[in-house]
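I have been asked to look over a protein record a colleague put together. Alongside the sequence sits a line of tokens, each denoting a local backbone shape. I have pasted the whole thing underneath without changing anything:
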Amino acid sequence: MRHAHEPEFHAVFLILGLLVLLSVPGILWRHQQLASVQATYRSPMAPVILVPGSSATQNRFNQLVKELNTQTETKHSLLRVEVCTDGRLKSSGTIRPGDRRPFIVVGFQDRHDGAANILRQAKWFTIAFRALQKAYHFNHFSAMGHSNGGLVLTLFMEHDLAATGAHAERLMTIASPFNLEEWNPTVDTPLFKTLVAGRSALPRQLAVYSIAGSETYSDDGIVPFDSVNRGKYIFQKQVRSFTQITVTGANAKHGDLPENRQIVKLIRQDLLKTVSFREPNG
């Protein structure tokens, strides 16, 4: 038995179906717009994260930051974080409200040298980075690593950065031994092979500056020049730009390089200047 109102129900369902179909393009467009905004949005804060080398603590860059603050109009806060071997974080210092370019130093309780510990430190760094993101709500940053600190940052950017959703804008490595302390240029260490194997995951918009110190044109007193020079095999053709710089003269020894006058100038010019995400290819 057919009901008298059945055609009316069919008409209503037809109209509802048409409305749903008409709304689909609008919904898809809104999702695309939201994804586009999320992809290009940059948080007001863009910290400069500093990682010291082996044996150095989270206090390693106190003098560097003090020197930089005498040379810039805006005074930058300094937050120091130590990552314990069990993943706990200890901090000292503070980020001043409204400071958009603070310095954050990430050091490690286990500061021993060696490839195995460098790999562990890269994972500890990821723990600290995620905690800092959650606490300060930033999604872009620049970074500097001295000696093995540069290796820690490179490993982080190859293996863990993408999962954080953050954008790395600039990376400066100072006397970072990409082939460790190997003097023979024909020998590739396992860590160097690991870095080369992961290079395709490096951020495409990253600008990289690799700085080498030279006392004798072959080393900086600790790290062979060839080991620093091998950064080109990791970064070239993988990132937006790669620049190699050699510093000689006064304070060109390995341990003195972060306070070297030329390097302080490079940090001020290249890591602290305002960054536009959509920069032209270099």
